[in-house]
Amino acid sequence: MPWQRNGSSDDTFVARLVDGDEPTWAELYQEHAGRIAGYARSKGVGDPDDLVGDVFAAAAERIGRFDGDRGRLRSWLFTIAHHRLADDLRQRRRRATDPTAPSDFESLTTGPDVLGDADERLDADGALALLDLVTPDQREVLVLRILGGLSIAETADVVAKPPGAIKALQHRAIARIQRELGDGPYRNPLSDDDGGDA
């Protein structure tokens, strides 16, 4: 069903997107691109910015068929990203990879930027290592909830599972990570962020 105007401010925002208003598209991009890139990085995508571009290109192509208000845009964008990532994973599995020749590494040098970048990535790498402790479904839920900032309902929409299943996956994942860290009894750090939906 094509999108229809109802007169609310959210509808006005979506109407401007449908009309191709560049400042509105820029605002949408600013709101969500960073989180989508983080989601892509957590999935091991080689070029997260490329995926973000693909997501917004697909959104621009499909916005006339979008069924919802501004509040649904975030989960819609993450659903597009989720499908693009699944496609990317299938393609990577099908492609044979060419190993990098050791001689290709000889021209690389390390400098202060490399050390600075490595230092900044330590915390992110540690967080990603913790995500390796949980099942793929649990990881997907945590990444969407934490990096994506999605609610339980939005996460359920993206992964096509009922909200109760999302809550259970999140609960088990956080409990597993907290046991590994030795943080005592289970406490859900996401429980206060969206009005009891956690």
How many domain regions? 2
Total strands = 0
Total count of helical runs of at least 4 residues = 9
The N- and C-terminal alpha carbons lie at a distance of 31 Å
Q: What would you call the shape?
A: globular
Structural class: mainly alpha
Relative helix content: 55-70%
Largest sheet, in brief, is: none
Mean pLDDT: 78
The succession of helices and strands, N to C, reads HHHHHHHHH
Name given to the CATH architecture of the largest domain: Orthogonal Bundle
CATH class designation of the largest domain:
Mainly Alpha
As a whole number of angstroms, the C-alpha radius of gyration is: 19 Å
CATH topology of the largest domain: Rna Polymerase Sigma Factor, Chain: A
Low-confidence stretches: 1-6, 102-122, 192-198
The fraction of residues in strands falls at under 5%
CATH superfamily of the largest domain: RNA polymerase sigma factor, region 2, helix turn helix motif
Write a concise keyword list for the protein shown above.
single chain, 198 residues, mainly alpha, Rna Polymerase Sigma Factor, Chain: A, Arc Repressor Mutant, subunit A, 2 domains, 9 helices, globular, disordered C terminus
What does this structure look like?
By secondary structure, the chain is mainly α. The protein has two domains: 86 residues, Orthogonal Bundle (Rna Polymerase Sigma Factor, Chain: A); 70 residues, Winged helix-like DNA-binding domain superfamily/Winged helix DNA-binding domain (Arc Repressor Mutant, subunit A, Orthogonal Bundle), CATH 1.10.10.10. Helix content is 67%, strand content 0%. It contains nine helices and no strands. The longest helix is centred in the middle third of the chain and has 25 residues. The chain is globular, with a radius of gyration of 19 Å. It starts with 8 loop residues before the first helix and ends in a 17-residue tail after the last helix. The N terminus and C terminus are likely disordered.
